[in-house]
Design brief:
Blueprint: H1 2-16, E1 21-22, E2 27-29, H2 34-37, H3 47-56, H4 62-65, H5 77-93, E3 97-99, E4 105-111, E5 116-125, H6 126-130, E6 134-135, H7 142-155, E7 157-158, E8 162-166, H8 170-179, E9 186-189, E10 195-201, H9 204-215, E11 220-224, H10 226-239, E12 249-256, E13 261-269, H11 277-284, E14 288-294, E15 305-310, E16 313-319, H12 333-338, H13 341-350, E17 365-369, H14 374-382, E18 388-392, H15 397-405, E19 415-418, E20 428-429
Parallel strand pairs: 6-11, 8-12
Antiparallel strand pairs: 1-5, 2-3, 4-5, 4-10, 5-12, 7-20, 8-11, 9-10, 13-17, 13-18, 13-19, 14-16, 15-16, 15-18
Helix pairs in contact: 5-7, 7-10
């Protein structure tokens, strides 16, 4: 009897701390049109580029999502989102999309010029999200969460998975390597010179094995897609009475921690808040050791280092209170946030000296992804629209996990994370 009670107790504990993933009946493009259908995120396109794709490629998924953006001020959200739903149905009726006969997983590889990313496309649990088994590190804007929730409600589908990391496991890594030796169902390239491959995992043995592997992973971490996951939770809370099982999960792209690429977001500011350049440098010297780099395109080499471009010159800024102790072992969780480079820049420079309080909405600050050359920052400042630029050292996954573990939130625009999933490649219907 005692042994039975122990077993039950053990099961209850393990149930609380395991990750649940499910296969789903994906809707996806037919193989001969997949390269034409899939697209980057809508916001990534310039107006001219968008117009060209819409004019010359009738198969682009941009046609489906475009109604959500056009005439934004002229018609109601309801009508805009219904336009998306109608266009999506047209694509299905025209045979551009097919629906899987049974729930499946997928293995998906993206090869860029510099790196290869491979992950698993699956449904992840709203319950896990609510119970903090799926952990967060970014704050969300409520209006964006509600907007996307309304979008999901009206359109009935989602095509942008949440990027989630899991701790590297040799068993999963070996399985992925072996699976990639088989014939993919998609093998195509895109105009930004990426190669994409997709494998279907549809045997009961593989599905069960993969689920059991994730059941042994106690925690998952959202890398990108905090608004999408929060919207899925909100939709579940509002519509769970309808009994729709698909609402219990949201589509995710699960990738090993070692396989994500984290870039920084650099900052450019329009003015010096009334300071002359020399006075500003003097103020900075209170918290930073400043080394002139003249015309050298200098960028930070490690944590607690910052680059700056001001008045036609580059500078290296070394934070005076730097610490090399392991973030995960800090006794005070607040220190984790205070020692985040993006937070240091805000606490010591942006807020007290430049008067920037709201990093999301202040029109005096803009952000440049670390993927772009720092020459871009130099050009923007030299043109006179901006007064100063700051370059940061990218965060690593251990910082993101330490923040999430301590329920702390990164400053806005702290990280730019790859891989980026192609829109229209996979549809999760609600």
């Amino acid at each position: 009897m005692a042994r039975k009670l122990i077993t039950i107790h053990y099961l209850l504990i393990t149930q609380k701390k395991m990750s649940k993933i499910i296969p789903f009946k994906a809707v996806r493009p037919v193989a001969d049109k997949v390269a034409l259908v899939t697209c980057r995120n809508y916001d990534d396109y310039s107006p001219a580029e968008l117009a060209a794709w819409l004019n010359f490629n009738p198969y682009s998924f941009l046609h489906v999502i475009n109604p959500a953006y056009i005439h934004a001020q002229k018609i109601t959200l309801d009508k805009r989102f219904k336009g998306v739903a109608h266009k999506y149905q047209d694509f299905k009726n025209d045979g551009i999309f097919i629906t899987e006969e049974k729930p499946v997983f997928f293995l998906y590889e993206i090869q860029t010029k510099s790196q290869s990313f491979t992950g698993i496309v699956a449904g992840t649990s709203i319950e896990d999200y609510k119970n903090n088994i799926i952990k967060k590190h970014e704050d969300t804007l409520q209006y964006r969460v509600e907007l996307f929730k309304d979008y999901l409600h009206q359109t009935g589908f989602n095509t942008e998975p949440v990027l989630i990391t899991y701790p590297d496991k040799s068993e999963i890594n070996n399985w992925i390597a072996e699976k990639k030796k088989s014939q993919p169902i998609y093998n195509y390239s895109t105009t930004n010179k990426e190669k994409h491959q997709l494998w279907k995992i549809d045997t009961d043995a593989e599905i069960n094995w993969l689920q059991s592997q994730f059941e042994n992973i106690p925690e998952l971490y959202i890398a990108d897609g905090h608004h999408r996951s929060a919207s899925a939770e909100l939709l579940y809370d509002e519509d769970k009475h309808l009994g729709n099982e698909n609402l219990n999960y949201f589509m995710s792209f699960l990738i090993a921690e070692s396989n994500v690429k984290i870039y920084e977001f650099n900052r450019i500011i329009r003015d010096l808040n009334g300071y002359e350049a020399a006075d500003f440098l003097e103020k900075l010297s209170e918290h930073f050791i400043i080394k002139p780099k003249e015309q050298e395109l200098w960028k930070p080499q490690s944590k607690f280092e910052f680059g700056m471009y001001l008045d036609g010159k580059f500078y290296a800024l070394f934070y005076k209170q730097s610490s090399t102790s392991d973030l995960s072992s800090r006794a005070q969780s607040r220190e984790i946030l205070e020692n985040l480079d993006a937070q240091i820049l805000y606490d010591k420079v942006l807020q007290p000296l430049l008067g920037i309080e709201d990093l999301r909405n202040d029109e005096r600050i803009e952000y440049i992804p670390g993927k772009q050359s720092i020459a871009t920052i130099k050009e923007l400042v030299d043109e006179g629209e901006f007064a100063v630029g700051f370059m940061l050292f990218p965060s690593d996954i251990s910082e993101i996990k330490a923040l999430a573990d301590n329920n702390l939130i990164m400053p806005p625009k702290s990280t730019y994370i790859e891989p980026k999933f192609r829109s229209g490649l996979m549809v999760y219907e609600l």
